[in-house]
Write a structure and sequence with these properties.
This protein is α+β, with helices and mostly antiparallel strands. The protein has one domain. It is built from 3 helices and 8 strands. The strands form 2 sheets. Strands 1, 2, 5, 6 and 7 form a 5-stranded antiparallel sheet that branches. A hairpin with a 2-residue loop joins strand 3 and strand 4. It starts with a helix and ends with a helix.
Length: 218
Amino acid sequence: MKKTGLFYIILSGMFGVILGLSFYVALIFFKDQIIDQSFVKNEMQVKFFSQAVMMQGNQRFQFFTLKQVEVLEKKSLAAIKWINLSLPDVVVGAIIPVTYTYFLELNDAWELDYQNAILIVKVPQIYFNEPAVDVSHMELLVTQGSIFRNEQMVLDQLKTSIMDYLRIRAQENINLIKESGKKEIEEFISKWITTHYQFKDNVKIQIEFSKETLKELR
């Protein structure tokens, strides 16, 4: 009698294990076969939170846009001081498509002087927007590496300083755009006076930069 009861207990245990394994296998099958990706709807909700701190209208004349591909290179030197041992140099670089935009503030001081049938226009200081980097086409690369150096750290240092370099470059480019910029400003002034004043003859316009701009160009 005792053996029969023990047999039923063992049989019940085995049945429970088989039932549990069957349930597990069925669950795996349901997960892999039934819940297919084509029946699953993935959603991502994005919320934007903004607070208006200040709103101000800008009265600017955007007169020139310059697109360039800048190539930057940074060499990192390192040494172990206590044994006076120089480590191999690491050279990293960046290829950056960037757009520079230059403008004049219409509310700044513009000087107009009409002499000998020539309208002399002294334009105010030239400004530029924050250089616009085409991040999707920017490349960062290690041109000279070393197993003894942290190349990624040097790359990160270059990445954080890119905008500083581009601002310097934007300032230097003012000299490059000077002549072409003059033509754009001249056309703007010509259209403006033609629209607002009835001139029978074409007025010859001469564009001159302000003293602040001339200092920067030198």
